[in-house]
Amino acid sequence: MSVTTPMTKQLQKELKIKNLHAVPRITKVVVNVGVGKHRDDKGYVEAVMKDLAAITGQKPRERRARKAVAGFKVREGNLVGYQVTLRGKRMEDFIQRFVNITLPRVRDFRGLPSTSFDGSGNVSVGMKEHMAFPEIQADKTDVMFGVEVTFVTSAKDNDEARKLFAALGFPFTTKASEVAGLPTMATSGIKKD
Question: The domain at 25-180 falls in which architecture?
């Protein structure tokens, strides 16, 4: 996010912040995928890595288990998932695609829950199917997996973050929007099927 966009000027007035550089902004986006019990299936793992690379536009990093957990049959060093950290232009493009294309394509989407905020102004969103991303063609992929996306902000608290995400067009559920004046499905421009 550029420093001097109309959105940052609007947020500066709304939050009554004197310094433009103190206006909250998204610093990075972290996309995580777990492979779970399929960690030994090479075809599944390669398909997950290929699809995650297509979704984010960069090669995912392997995440390995730091310690063994007998209940999950995981040993130290086993592959548990993949992670991608996006910053800069790739992050901005991903956010626009996520809000304007991916969320409307999610099956039975009713808005993002207000419980997605972590208390420090960051938002985590979990999706059960990665098929909602426009880069994935259903006929060319043979695996289904969930994706967890975390939007890390420079906001000091959830209220500042709510206003930031409202300005970016994130659709929150009606309960959260009543409290903070956020856009709902009807006002965010996302058409419900």
Answer: 2-Layer Sandwich (3.30)
Residue 190 CB coordination number (10 Å): 19
Cβ–Cβ contacts within 10 Å for residue 167, how many?
A: 18
Q: What is the pLDDT of residues 97-150, one digit of tens each?
A: 888 888 888 887 778 888 888 888 888 888 888 887 878 877 777 788 888 999
pTM of the model: 0.80
* Nearest C-alpha neighbor of 31 from the set 133, 183, 172, 169: 133
